[in-house]
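ok trying again, last paste got cut off:
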Amino acid sequence: QVQLVESGGGLVQAGGSLRLSCAASGRTFSTYAMGWFRQAPGKEREFVAAISWGGTNTRYADSVRGRFTTSRDNAKNTVYLQMNSLKPEDTAVYYCAAPGSTYTTPRSVDHYAYWGQGTQVTVSS
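nice, full thing came through this time. structure:
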């Protein structure tokens, strides 16, 4: 089994920054891609970003490209999401996720088998 624990969420004003972390355990972290998703109240869970196992490939949703950056430290079994220039529409519960197979940078919810508990990000206007 894979365990994922997110941290770093909180309340921030529009234009501010937050850095989310996701600590993984339970399998060889460095051989799998990782992803970030978010879910706002009343909306479906949506893809935010993904990073390949070695960190050389990344993929972003159009809504966050240029503002968010994902990275990973395989020595620490941790993946990060740096969020800059935050907007009120970024308000959501953010989840990190691990795929069930060796995809490069998967963006579909269906490709992910393991999920963290989520961390709330609230951006005030």
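cool. The two ends are 40 Å apart (CA to CA). The CA atoms of residues 21 and 80 lie 5 Å apart.
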